[in-house]
Write a structure and sequence with these properties.
Elements (H helix, E strand, L loop, with lengths): L2 H10 L3 H10 L3 H9 L3 H5 L7
């Protein structure tokens, strides 16, 4: 996976199960990177959770 995938995974903490399910249907590195940087359930449930 590209570096941007790893950076997004570390900083955004997306659901890896969600990413795996999506990539099973659409195996594309660009999609994987996009998914890592997309708002996650945490962002929708607790908008201030990532505020320092």
């Amino acid at each position: 996976m590209p570096v941007w995938f790893h950076l997004g995974a570390i900083s955004r903490r997306p659901s890896f199960a969600w990413i795996a399910r999506t990539l099973a249907a659409v195996p594309d590195e660009d999609i994987a990177v996009w998914l890592c940087w997309t708002d996650t359930e945490l962002d929708r449930t607790h908008p201030a959770a990532r505020a320092g």
